[in-house]
């Protein structure tokens, strides 16, 4: 393929918006392109990189977080730059990008929650699980929140891995949590928690739960909580029984075995209990000053367009609970000047190439990760996803399908941000914050104590700069 840009003298300049896994995988593929020289500038609205690896992955899953080692290698590349604390659409606009880059990749993930759309959803003590997750992970936008952990009975609505994360963090003992990098204020609040029972409620049956088996099984080995399933919950309707028999989904079969193990196990009278319930859809959160109960409709599995759907029956159940986490999926948020599909919460695209409302390709614009395909998949799913987008981007470059930047010089962006008074954070700055957090943790025998406000992070950097110039 013959490139007109993409030479050492005239590199392809790509801006990536966001710095989570899909952003870093896209950067890695761009920087390792064999037939073009690409420069990557990554913009992140927080001073810290890594998106959901820092702000979403559960603190008691440190192994998953080691994926950042690969991202760190990418960040060391001479043609890579990180600009943290820069908000797209405010500090840096769509038109700035078109002036300085040949292409942009949106990697902004899914920053908000889906809604149930039922009465009482916004009562006090009803929260999006996404907020709780961001809070216990020390995300600066959520650090100010508080959760009423004086309640004894909590419901987590949804049968995905986020529901499992939330239930597990609620069930962990203070000693278990202390060994993690959970935000220090969350550790303190959870250590005082009164929560005794955590109900995980699915609208479909045990054969349709979306948990991955490893995460589900882990619930059975918590120091301070038993798992309970009434064996009657595991009775299968004919559709579900046939689905499991077919072996179509190994995860579903394995999950069902784990549910059976849970149903057989004798409770060890641990201080907390996680109870799994199925085939129940919330129809109303009841209460006056806060959630006091959830009215649920009993579902049965029925086939709709070859899909095992939850179909409501005439039967209802009211479950008293004092706190609810709605864990029914993440949802993407629109970006200024970028097409958006409200219904699916994604940037409309064909295999990563952004399209407008007429289905036409938007020259120079691409998407990766959850903002491209919706909030599904684990961290590793972003690798092939990013590869696909980058392949199309590089192919389009060869056919001049890119922005024609008036000023593609490397210096233009730092100059522009400085002129606008934006205190951007470089990758070296982040490494300094990283070291500082680890030192703070080491002083009290924890892996890390996160800085949880942007001001705190910028001040820490300022002090370090002043010390360095003394
Ligand atoms: P998810 O896996 O899509 O699960 C969402 C759950 O909410 C499903 O059980 C879904 O039921 C239910 N739901 C949706 N709408 C509902 C409604 N109106 N009423 C009641 N229930 C409703 O989403 P997630 O848990 O947020 O996870 C997002 C992605 O991140 C997933 O791919 C997950 O595997 C991944 N993740 C991975 C890990 C890990 O690997 N450790 C940790 C966290 C997250 P239906 O199935 O009936 O739609």
Write the layout of secondary structure elements.
Layout lengths: L11 E6 L3 H11 L6 E6 L8 H4 L6 H4 L2 H8 L4 E4 L10 H7 L2 E4 L5 E2 L12 E3 H8 L16 E5 L3 H11 L2 H5 L5 H8 L5 E5 L11 H6 L6 E4 L9 H9 L3 H15 L7 E6 L2 E7 L6 E12 L2 E14 L2 E4 L3 E2 L17 E2 L2 E3 L5 E7 L2 H4 L8 H17 L13 H8 L7 H16 L11 H16 L1
Parallel strand pairs: 1-2, 1-4, 2-3, 4-18, 6-14, 7-8, 7-14, 8-10, 9-10
Antiparallel strand pairs: 5-15, 11-12, 12-13, 16-17, 17-18
Helix pairs in contact: 1-4, 1-14, 6-7
The structure holds NADP nicotinamide-adenine-dinucleotide phosphate.
Commentary on this structure:
With 470 residues, this protein is α/β, with parallel strands linked by helices. 33% of the residues lie in helices and 20% in strands. The chain has 17 helices and 18 strands. It has a 7-stranded mixed β-sheet, with helices on both faces. A 6-stranded parallel β-sheet has the order 6-14-7-8-10-9. The longest helix has 17 residues. It is globular, with a radius of gyration of 24 Å. 44% of the residues are buried. The mean pLDDT is 96. NADP nicotinamide-adenine-dinucleotide phosphate binds next to helix 7.
Quick structural overview:
By secondary structure, the protein is α/β, with parallel strands linked by helices.
Question: Can you tag this structure with a few keywords?
Answer:
470 residues, seven-stranded mixed beta sheet, alpha/beta, 18 strands, binds NADP nicotinamide-adenine-dinucleotide phosphate, 33% helix
Number of helices: 17
Taking the alpha carbons of the first and last residues, their distance comes to: 52 Å
Radius of gyration: 24 Å
Arithmetic mean of pLDDT: 96
Helical proportion, percent range: 25-40%
For the largest beta-sheet, the strand count, sense and barrel status come to: 7 strands, mixed
Fraction in beta strands: 15-25%
Low-confidence stretches: none
């Amino acid at each position: 393929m013959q490139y007109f840009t993409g030479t050492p003298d005239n590199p392809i300049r790509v801006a990536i918006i966001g710095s989570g896994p899909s952003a870093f995988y896209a950067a890695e593929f761009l920087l390792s392109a064999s037939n073009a020289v690409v420069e990557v500038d990554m913009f992140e609205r927080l001073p810290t990189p890594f998106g959901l690896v820092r702000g979403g992955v559960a603190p008691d899953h440190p192994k998953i977080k080691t994926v950042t080692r690969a991202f760190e290698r990418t960040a060391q590349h001479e043609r890579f730059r990180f600009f943290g604390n820069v908000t797209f659409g405010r500090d840096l606009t769509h038109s700035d990008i078109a002036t300085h880059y040949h292409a942009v990749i949106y990697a902004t993930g899914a920053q908000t929650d889906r809604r149930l759309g039922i009465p009482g959803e916004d009562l006090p003590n009803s929260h999006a699980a996404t907020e709780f997750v961001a809070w216990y992970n020390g995300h600066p936008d959520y650090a100010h929140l508080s959760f009423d952990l004086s309640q004894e009975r909590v419901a987590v609505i949804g049968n995905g891995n986020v529901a499992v994360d939330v239930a597990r963090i609620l069930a962990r003992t203070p000693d278990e949590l202390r060994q993690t990098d959970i935000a220090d204020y969350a550790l303190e609040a959870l250590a005082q928690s009164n929560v005794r029972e955590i109900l995980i409620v699915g609208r479909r049956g045990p054969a349709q739960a979306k948990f991955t088996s490893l995460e589900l099984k882990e619930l059975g080995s918590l120091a301070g909580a038993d798992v309970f399933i009434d064996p009657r919950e595991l009775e299968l309707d004919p559709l579900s029984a046939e689905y499991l028999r077919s072996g179509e989904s190994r995860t579903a079969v394995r999950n069902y075995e784990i549910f059976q193990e849970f149903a057989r196990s004798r409770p060890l009278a641990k201080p907390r209990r996680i109870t799994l319930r199925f085939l129940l859809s919330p129809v109303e959160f009841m209460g006056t000053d806060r959630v006091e109960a959830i009215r649920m409709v009993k579902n049965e599995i029925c086939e709709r367009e070859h899909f095992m759907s939850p179909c409501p029956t005439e039967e209802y159940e009211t479950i008293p609970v004092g706190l609810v986490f709605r864990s029914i999926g993440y949802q993407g948020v629109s970006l200024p000047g970028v097409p958006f599909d409200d219904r699916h919460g994604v940037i409309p695209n064909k295999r990563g190439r952004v399209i407008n409302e007429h289905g036409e390709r938007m020259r120079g614009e691409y998407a990766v990760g959850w903002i491209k395909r919706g909030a599904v998949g684990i961290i590793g799913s972003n690798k092939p996803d990013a590869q696909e987008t980058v392949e199309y981007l590089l192919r389009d470059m060869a056919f001049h399908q890119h922005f024609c930047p008036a000023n593609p010089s490397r210096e233009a962006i730092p100059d522009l941000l400085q002129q606008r008074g934006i205190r951007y954070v470089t990758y070296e700055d982040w490494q300094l914050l990283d070291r500082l957090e680890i030192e703070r943790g080491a002083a009290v025998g924890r892996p890390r104590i996160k800085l949880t406000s942007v001001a705190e992070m910028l001040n820490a950097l300022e002090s370090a700069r002043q010390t360095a110039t003394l």
